[in-house]
Each structure stands twice: as structure tokens, then as C-alpha cells.
């Protein structure tokens, strides 16, 4: 993907279409445990935002509470951010995106944040189809409160204090598809290339909420052999549905796959996702196929990654509410306050 | 049993008693869900159209149909609109409660009832007007579906004839009620006039109460507080409403929905300039406000006590991250689910301190319909000016009952969007610190997401932060931040609507009250003056409390704080506000689900004075 990159700037750093070098997309230094999966994801967000030449001032970064939810501080310093409440990022982001539809929300949550305390808000956000990229940094454990089971923890998993988890995990991708989400993908923080391509696709998706569930190992509380959310398990067991490349609309389209081995998904903004066949010929536009694939995988404790489901057909919240195209936050006084005669008429009707 | 057999024998005869004109209360007892609201509104509106001051209160159960409901109408030539303990006229149309209702009637009062009902203990000291409800309904020819509704119109006709309510005004009221639709107007009016005709021919007037035209309502309107609030918000430029239904606040958002399309449609695109979202719960409702307020919208919700408690965590976040938003709390009776359809002023302390740690919010306390409208607008100005949540504490009595008021004035002041820096401002200034207190008023400057200036971005959070909005756990940063928030609260003190003070010559007693207590206090002060007790009255309109209130407390020997909750919540706040005078502040707290009466206040005051 070279289309977005201009000639080198001062000091030889590469510049993107906006003339920014990559450091302009960085955040504060991370305070997470070194080696935490969340940090790898933050660095992919930086890379992708730079490559796609996202205008930083049009991005808002929102999150809930948890180690994962701290990460918006660690990317895109030039974007407004809001680290909100445990499990409540969806409603806050809904409000912000409704207030200003020109903003691109990149929102980060944890599996505890989304799958436990915030499950209700998650489902309702998806039901409303709020345009945003929703990243779940899924480590199967509560990191910030030091190692309790989250709702995505595997059945039978052991933790030092909590003992054995007797309950089955919630699959947040299945929940997303069930709730009508039109972009659902799963990846692994250790698979930088796949995370990057899926992030690009998610950011270019114009159909509403794009959910990216990224297995992100917690090296401090959940990185042992028996965990399916550990680096070793991820590396050994990641089963990709397909190899994925994302091609921007303005990019030079270099198709380097052989006939009959790849599937192209063209999105509304003109970009293309190329899915190179690995195993069976998976069709991410088939909702039922996506659901049964995930069901099977859950039963076998398989860890499948890739673009699970895509569909751009649903109404986004702005259309459902019939609100003006100008961002609500930018309306002027004359647009916000009805004229004097309107009040006089209402008053006359009430006597 | 013949109709005649069932009539209670009354020996009451009005001869010798002077008649009472435009000064009595009517209680209409009906069954919830029987459509009596149309009949009751017709009575109120027709009396109002006769120029007579009138107020109606619906005392209803938390249930959809089948339980008793009482509608009380106060007719007052002196313009008093508070509830009264006494009832002069009873419409006993709920047979489950008819016998008990009859006992509450004042001696010499009048009782209207369906003529086939037999009272268990008929009183001899009241006047009876049995109405042939079944017969008149049958004659109306209304289909079965409408029979209950039509039955209610029978008492409208009966009251009109006996009390002297002008039938032409009743017709006007029905036209208004049915939006001019001829068919229902004709059907309902037909029954009213038939009933009036029947009474004229068969039931001679024996009681002493009647109405006579006055000219005291000219130019006024009748409106519910929640309608006023909703209109206020629309004219205040609300651009995001997110809410979850709860009695008694629902009609605030119903009003916004009702007027939205007419008033807030962009002519060019035909699309709305305000988003209304029904959230999945109150947590999500306020969450959306926090996001929208942060991104530059005028955002509001309407709820009641149970919703307020769910909003706690976000209210604290909005306070600490300094995000403007408006929460209408239409108070109802707690603790817990309490009396969901009864009025109260029980959320004062909860709302003021909502949040953990040291959190305190700006609260507005509307005391009449004008203020319900005005605060609908000015709450946004305050929220944006101060960058903080603003609570407006109304209650069920204001919110869901019809009140007379002058028509609302168009808001003249331009919207106050507060300290927001544009890209140009940032260029000019050359630096930006989100939480720096440049003016000493505790309010920092903010930028909105979408501002392209490279300096614009900052990070909001509920955790400790310094003036640059950077995360900080340093004790000095923490203290500095809280000191600034305290300064901001002091700024709020000077900006919120000041109390309204009414003085009387020679008074050394003061009464302090707020909200929907006002009508009863106004009347009580007059009653007390008639007993030779002069009282000055201070009506609070906001928290934080300010200087005028301290002065008022200092200037009076005895002070009564009147309110509708059990613990005397405002009384406690006033004691904290003015600790040196705490002992002189006496609490008069009323808490039975019904609104205050002047009689209750007068008795309490007299018992302390004697
Ligand atoms: C209302 C509330 N309850 C509990 C907490 C404590 N808490 C902070 S983070 C957290 C769990 C976060 O787990 P997860 O979302 O999986 O994120 P991780 O730290 O693992 O990245 C909890 C329970 C809180 N902040 N707020
Ligand atoms: S505790 Fe786990 S999730 Fe939290 S920062 Fe450390 S490694 Fe990451």
C-alpha cells in the first residue's frame, strides 16, 4: 500500500497525503505491561491512521475502563479523546457521533468492558448501527483489576484466585452478527499484518458499526499454556479464514492473486477487500454461514480469524433519526431556535 | 328496586345560607382508564374561559385501568391555585369509593352520583343530585366502545347546570379538546346538554355553590409543566434528547416529539435539527448526553428519581470531565418505587450531590409554569457557560397538571454557548490548556472535536488530571483541580436565578420554600396575615444557595423551611449553608404524596408560634 505516501519530508521521514510523518499519529508513551497485546494494537492503529491519511482532527477516540480502554491515550495525540466509564463507551460514542456525523470514532474496549458490564450497551449500539470502529481488545480476563474471569474466558480455564471457570464464553462476534452488525472481524494482536488490513477495511466501511474483536494476550494474568487468549495459543492455533489485503479506492490496484483463489469485496466508498482463499471457500457476505462457522469454531474451541461478515445494507442511526446532514454541533442559532411567530402561535392555541 | 328507592334522603336545604360564588373545590372520583380526563379538562377549561381562576389536579394510581382516581378542581375568585383539604362538590362516579368519598364532603356540600347507586350510609347534611347516567348514555346512541367516555359527560352537564357553568364555554372547551373535529364534539356536547336539560327539569338547585363570570383569566393560557419544559427546550435550541420512559417525566419528551417536526425541521432538506433517541435505559440516556455535550450539542434528558439513581456514575463523570448537559428530574414520591404517581420534592439532596466523592451540581427549581418554560432554555445556557450538568427539579404536580399562566415570552437573550475556542481563536492565542482558570471563575476554555487546529485536541477522563488535561495523580494537581471546581461552583452561585422575596410590613418571621409549594405558601401567607401574623416569603430558585438567602435568614427571627419530603432536605442544606443560624431554621415537611395545602402550613406555623 504505497498510494498514500508522498516523498520524504525533513529528516527523510516519509509523509502521508496530508504531509504528516508517522510520529504525528503517535500517542503518549504506554503505561501498560511491556509486551501487552493492547500495545501492539495501538501501534497498528497508528500505522493505519497514518497510511490512510486520516485527518486527526476528524477522529475521536473513545473508550470504557480497563487496561485496554487506556490505550486511546497511546495513539493519535492530535485527536480528541474520551476515556469514559466501565462498559458505557457505546452510549457516549453514540452521543458524540450523533452530535457530529463528520467525526470518525475509533473506540476501544475490553472483553470485560464489552462482554460483561457493557453487554447491554454493546448490543444496543449495534442495533442502532452507529457509524464507528469498535475494537475489542479481548484477553479473556480482567486486566486492570488484576485477573478475574471475563465473560469471554474459556470454560474450564483456571486462574490463581478465581479458580476454575465453569461457564461457557460469550462470543462477541456472534453477538455482533446477531445484533445486525454489518462488519464483523476477528484477529490476533500477534498477527500485525492481518490486524492492519482489517483495521483499514473497518475504517473504510461506511455501513455503520464495524466490530473488530482482537485476541490480545494479557501477559500478566492470562498468558499461560491452557489459555486460548495467550500468545502461544494464538500463534499455534490461529486458523485464518483467508489472507486479507485491503485496497484503497485511490490506490493503485495491484492484484496479485491467481484466478479462482480469491474473493473481492467491494465497499461503498470504492475500496476493496481481497480475501485470498486458504481452506474452504468462505463467503463473508453470507450471514448464516458466518453464524454457523462461529458456532462450529466455538464448539471445537477453534480460533478463526479474518473478515467474518460484511454487509453494507442497513440504515445508520443518522438516517433512522432523519437528522440533517450538517453536524448537529455545527448548527447556528437561527437553525436551533424557532422564530418568535412560532411561539406566539403555540401560545394562541393554548388559551 | 326503583330509582326513587335508591335516593338518599337529604334534609339539607340551603335556605338561609348565603351563596358562595367562585370559591370552592370539586372532587371528581372516577375509575382509572375510564376516559374521565376529557370530561375533567372540559370542566377546567370552561370555567377558565368564564374568566374564573381555576386549577386542576389529577390524583391517580400507578396503574392503567380499574383503580380509583380523583380529579380535584379548585375554583378561586382570589386566584389561589393550591390544593385544599375541603371539598364542597363531589362527583361520586367511582362506586368502589363512593361511600368513603361521600364522608369527605363538607357539610352543605353537593354530591352528584349515578342514580342507580345506593349509598350505604347516606348523610343528611349534604345535597344530592342523582344523575340518570345509563338512560342518558343510551339516548346518546354512542356505540359500546364510547359508552364510558360518554358517561363522564353526564356529570359535566350536571355540574354545568347546578353550578352555572356556561354551556357555550363547554362547547368551546370541547372544540379545543378535540382539535375542532366536529363528530366527537357533537357527540360529547349532545350528552352534556341532555344531562343539563334533565337536571334543569328534574333536580332543583339546593346547594349554595355557583360560578359567575369574572375577568381574571383574560389573555392567560392553561398548560402542563412538562409541556412548558418541552417547549422551553425546543426554543432553547436542544439538539439531542436521549431518554428512557418514566412517570411523571415522559410528557416532557412527548412534547418535544409532538412539536419537533413543526418547529425543528430544516426547510432545505426536510430533515430534523434535533435527534431524539429512546435509550435502552437511563445509563445509556445520560451516556449519550455526555458524548453529545462533549462534542458540542445542547443535550438533555427527562427522568425521575429511579432514573436519576442510574445516572449517578455518568453525572459524576460529566461533572469532573466538565461536560455540559441538562437533566430534568420530574420528582415523584420515593423511597424506591414509592408512590410513582404522587408528587414530592424528595430528590433535592440526591440531585445536588449526585456522584461519589465530592460532587455538587447546579440545580434549578422552577416555581411556576413561566419558569418551567424559561428554565427549559436557560438550563442550557448555564450548562454550557459553566461546562457542567444542570439539573432542573420539577415535580409531578407541576409536570402533569394544568396550570393557568401568562403566555410565554420569546427568549430574547441569544444562546450562551460558553467558552469555546475556534481554530482562529487558537491561532490568535498560540496556546491552549483545557483546564486552566484564566478568568478566575473556575471555568476553563474548551475546544470541540473537529476543530482542525493542531493544538485543539485534548483527552477527557474521569480520572485525576492537571490543567493540560493530562493524567495526573499528583496531590497538588488533584487539589488544584478541586479548588478550581469549587471556584466554579461559586461562579454558579452568582449566575443561577436568584430567589424571589416577598415582604410584608413588620414581619419578623420568614418562610423559605421552592418549586410547586409556592401556591400553598402564597395562600398561607395571606391566611396568616388575616390572623395577624405577618410573614416574609423567600422562594428559592436554584442551588447552590447564594447571598440573598443568607441575608434573608439573618434578617428574620424565626424561619420556616417548607417542603414536600420527609427529612426536610432543603432545611438541611440551608443549615449547612448558614450554620450560625441553623437553630433558628425550623422544618415544615409534608410527605403524604399529595401536594401542600395552605391549611397545613398555617396550622404548623401557628403551632410553633403559640
Ligand atoms: C462500575 C465499575 N465497576 C468496576 C470497575 C472496576 N474495573 C476496572 S477495569 C475492570 C475490568 C476491565 O476488564 P477488561 O474490560 O477485560 O479490560 P482489560 O483490563 O482486561 O484490558 C473493572 C471490573 C469500574 N471501574 N467501574
Ligand atoms: S495487566 Fe494484562 S491487560 Fe493489563 S496491561 Fe498488563 S498485560 Fe495488558
Automatic annotation (TrEMBL), chain A:
Could you tell me which species this protein originates from? Candidatus Chlorohelix allophototropha
Kindly indicate whether the keyword Oxidoreductase belongs to this entry. Answer: yes
BP terms from Gene Ontology = cellular respiration
Instruction: Indicate the secretion signal residues.
Output: none
Q: What is this protein called?
A: 2-oxoacid:ferredoxin oxidoreductase subunit beta
Q: Which residues cross the membrane?
A: none
Pfam family, any one: TPP_enzyme_C
Which residue range or ranges hold the Thiamine pyrophosphate enzyme TPP-binding domain?
65-214
Under InterPro entries, the record lists: 2-oxoacid:Fd_oxidoreductase, THDP-binding, TPP_enzyme_TPP-bd
Q: Which UniProt keywords apply?
A: Oxidoreductase
Gene Ontology MF terms in the entry: oxidoreductase activity, acting on the aldehyde or oxo group of donors, iron-sulfur protein as acceptor; thiamine pyrophosphate binding
Matching entries from PANTHER family are given as: 2-OXOGLUTARATE OXIDOREDUCTASE SUBUNIT KORB-RELATED, BLR6744 PROTEIN
UniProtKB/TrEMBL annotation, chain B:
- Top-rank taxon of the source lineage equals Bacteria
Keyword list, A-Z: Oxidoreductase
Cite the GO molecular-function annotations of the record: oxidoreductase activity, acting on the aldehyde or oxo group of donors
Q: Which residues form the Pyruvate/ketoisovalerate oxidoreductase catalytic domain?
A: 33-196
Keyword flag Oxidoreductase: yes
What Gene3D superfamilies does the database record attribute to this sequence? Answer: 3.40.50.920, 3.40.50.970, Pyruvate-ferredoxin oxidoreductase, PFOR, domain III
A GO BP entry is: response to oxidative stress
Give the signal sequence positions. Answer: none
Q: Which residues form the Pyruvate flavodoxin/ferredoxin oxidoreductase pyrimidine binding domain?
A: 232-396
* Keyword flag Iron: no
| Protein name, entry field | 2-oxoacid:acceptor oxidoreductase subunit alpha
UniProt source species: Candidatus Chlorohelix allophototropha
Amino acid at each position: 500500500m504505497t498510494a498514500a505516501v508522498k516523498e520524504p519530508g525533513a529528516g527523510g521521514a516519509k509523509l502521508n497525503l496530508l504531509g504528516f510523518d508517522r510520529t504525528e499519529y503517535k500517542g503518549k508513551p504506554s503505561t501498560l505491561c511491556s509486551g501487552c497485546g493492547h500495545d501492539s494494537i495501538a501501534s497498528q492503529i497508528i500505522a493505519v491512521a497514518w497510511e490512510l491519511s486520516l485527518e486527526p482532527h476528524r477522529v475521536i477516540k473513545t473508550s470504557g475502563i480497563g487496561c485496554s480502554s487506556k490505550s486511546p491515550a497511546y495513539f493519535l495525540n492530535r485527536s480528541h479523546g474520551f476515556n469514559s466509564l466501565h462498559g458505557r463507551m457505546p452510549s457516549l460514542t453514540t452521543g458524540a457521533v450523533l452530535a457530529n456525523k463528520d467525526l470518525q470514532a475509533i473506540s476501544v474496549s475490553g472483553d470485560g468492558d464489552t462482554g460483561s458490564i457493557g453487554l447491554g450497551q454493546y448490543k444496543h449500539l449495534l442495533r442502532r448501527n452507529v457509524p464507528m470502529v469498535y475494537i475489542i481488545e479481548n484477553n479473556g480476563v480482567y486486566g486492570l483489576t488484576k485477573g478475574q474471569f471475563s465473560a469471554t474466558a474459556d470454560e474450564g480455564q483456571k486462574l490463581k484466585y478465581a479458580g476454575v471457570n465453569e461457564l461457557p464464553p460469550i462470543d462477541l462476534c456472534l453477538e455482533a452478527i446477531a445484533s445486525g452488525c454489518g462488519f464483523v472481524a476477528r484477529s490476533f494482536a500477534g498477527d500485525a499484518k492481518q490486524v492492519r488490513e482489517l483495521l483499514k477495511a473497518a475504517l473504510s466501511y461506511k455501513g455503520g458499526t464495524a466490530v473488530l474483536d482482537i485476541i490480545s494476550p494479557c501477559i500478566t494474568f492470562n498468558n499461560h499454556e491452557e489459555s486460548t487468549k495467550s500468545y502461544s495459543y494464538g500463534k499455534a492455533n490461529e486458523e485464518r479464514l483467508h489472507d486479507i489485503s485491503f485496497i484503497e479506492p485511490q490506490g493503485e490496484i495491484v492484484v496479485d492473486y491467481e484466478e479462482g483463489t480469491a474473493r473481492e469485496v467491494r465497499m461503498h466508498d470504492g475500496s476493496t477487500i481481497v480475501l485470498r482463499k486458504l481452506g474452504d471457500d468462505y463467503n463473508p457476505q453470507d450471514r448464516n454461514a458466518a453464524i454457523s462457522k462461529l458456532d462450529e469454531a466455538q464448539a471445537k474451541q477453534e480460533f478463526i480469524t479474518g473478515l467474518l461478515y460484511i454487509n453494507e445494507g442497513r440504515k445508520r442511526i443518522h438516517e433512522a433519526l432523519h437528522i440533517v446532514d450538517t453536524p448537529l454541533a455545527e448548527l447556528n442559532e437561527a437553525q436551533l431556535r424557532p422564530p418568535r411567530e412560532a411561539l406566539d402561535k403555540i401560545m394562541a392555541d393554548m388559551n | 328496586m326503583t330509582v326513587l328507592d335508591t335516593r338518599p334522603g337529604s334534609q339539607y336545604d340551603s335556605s338561609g345560607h348565603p351563596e358562595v360564588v367562585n370559591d370552592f373545590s370539586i372532587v371528581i372520583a372516577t375509575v382509572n382508564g375510564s376516559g374521565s380526563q376529557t370530561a375533567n379538562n372540559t370542566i377546567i377549561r370552561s370555567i377558565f374561559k368564564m374568566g374564573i381562576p381555576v386549577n386542576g389536579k389529577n390524583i391517580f394510581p400507578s396503574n392503567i385501568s380499574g383503580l380509583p382516581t380523583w380529579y380535584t378542581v379548585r375554583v378561586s375568585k382570589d386566584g389561589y391555585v393550591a390544593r385544599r383539604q375541603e371539598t364542597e362538590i363531589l362527583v361520586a362516579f367511582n362506586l368502589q369509593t363512593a361511600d368513603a368519598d361521600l364522608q369527605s364532603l363538607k357539610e352543605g356540600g353537593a354530591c352528584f352520583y349515578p342514580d342507580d347507586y345506593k349509598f350505604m350510609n347516606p348523610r343528611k347534611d349534604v345535597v344530592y343530585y342523582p344523575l340518570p347516567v345509563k338512560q342518558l348514555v343510551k339516548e346518546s346512541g354512542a356505540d359500546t366502545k364510547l359508552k364510558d367516555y360518554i358517561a363522564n359527560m353526564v356529570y359535566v352537564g350536571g355540574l354545568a347546570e347546578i353550578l352555572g357553568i356556561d354551556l357555550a364555554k363547554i362547547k368551546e372547551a370541547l372544540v379545543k379538546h378535540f382539535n375542532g373535529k366536529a363528530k366527537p364534539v357533537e357527540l360529547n356536547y349532545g350528552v352534556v346538554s341532555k344531562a343539563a336539560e334533565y337536571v334543569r327539569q328534574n333536580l332543583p338547585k339546593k346547594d349554595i355553590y355557583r360560578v359567575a363570570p369574572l375577568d381574571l383569566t383574560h389573555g392567560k393560557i392553561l398548560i402542563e409543566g412538562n409541556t412548558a419544559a418541552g417547549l422551553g427546550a425546543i426554543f432553547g435550541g436542544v439538539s439531542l434528547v436521549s431518554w428512557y420512559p418514566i412517570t411523571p417525566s415522559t410528557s416532557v419528551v412527548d412534547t418535544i416529539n409532538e412539536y419537533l417536526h413543526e418547529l425543528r425541521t430544516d426547510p432545505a432538506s426536510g430533515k430534523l435539527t434535533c435527534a431524539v433517541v429512546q435509550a435502552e435505559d437511563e445509563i445509556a440516556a445520560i451516556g449519550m448526553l455526555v458524548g453529545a455535550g462533549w462534542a458540542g450539542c445542547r443535550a438533555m434528558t427527562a427522568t425521575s428519581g429511579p432514573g436519576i439513581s442510574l445516572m449517578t456514575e455518568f453525572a459524576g463523570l460529566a461533572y469532573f470531565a466538565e461536560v455540559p448537559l441538562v437533566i430534568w428530574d420530574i420528582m415523584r414520591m420515593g423511597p424506591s418505587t414509592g408512590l410513582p404517581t404522587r408528587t414530592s420534592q424528595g430528590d433535592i439532596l440526591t440531585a445536588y450531590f449526585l456522584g461519589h466523592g465530592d460532587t455538587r451540581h447546579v440545580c434549578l427549581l422552577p416555581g411556576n409554569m413561566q419558569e418551567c418554560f424559561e428554565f427549559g432554555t436557560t438550563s442550557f445556557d448555564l450548562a454550557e457557560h459553566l461546562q457542567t450538568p444542570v439539573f432542573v427539579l420539577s415535580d409531578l404536580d407541576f409536570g402533569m397538571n394544568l396550570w393557568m399562566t401568562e403566555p410565554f415570552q420569546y427568549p430574547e437573550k441569544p444562546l450562551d454557548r460558553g467558552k469555546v475556542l475556534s481554530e482562529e481563536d487558537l491561532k490568535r492565542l498560540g496556546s491552549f490548556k483545557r483546564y486552566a482558570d484564566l478568568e478566575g471563575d473556575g471555568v476553563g476554555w474548551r475546544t470541540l472535536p473537529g476543530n482542525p487546529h493542531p493544538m485543539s485536541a485534548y483527552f477527557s477522563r474521569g480520572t485525576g488530571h492537571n490543567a493540560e488535561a493530562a493524567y495526573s495523580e499528583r496531590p497538588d494537581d488533584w487539589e488544584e483541580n478541586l479548588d478550581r471546581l469549587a471556584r466554579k461552583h461559586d461562579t454558579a452561585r452568582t449566575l443561577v436565578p436568584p430567589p424571589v422575596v416577598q415582604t410584608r410590613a413588620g414581619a419578623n418571621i420568614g418562610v423559605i420554600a421552592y418549586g410547586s409549594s409556592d401556591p400553598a405558601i402564597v395562600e398561607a401567607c395571606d391566611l396568616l396575615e388575616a390572623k395577624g401574623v405577618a410573614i416574609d416569603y423567600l422562594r428559592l430558585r436554584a442551588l447552590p444557595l447564594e447571598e440573598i438567602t443568607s441575608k434573608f435568614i439573618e434578617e428574620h427571627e424565626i424561619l420556616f423551611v417548607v417542603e414536600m419530603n420527609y427529612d426536610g432536605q432543603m432545611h438541611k442544606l440551608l443549615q449547612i449553608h448558614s450554620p450560625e443560624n441553623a437553630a433558628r431554621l425550623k422544618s415544615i415537611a409534608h410527605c403524604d404524596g399529595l401536594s401542600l395545602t395552605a391549611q397545613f402550613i398555617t396550622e404548623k406555623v401557628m403551632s410553633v408560634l403559640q
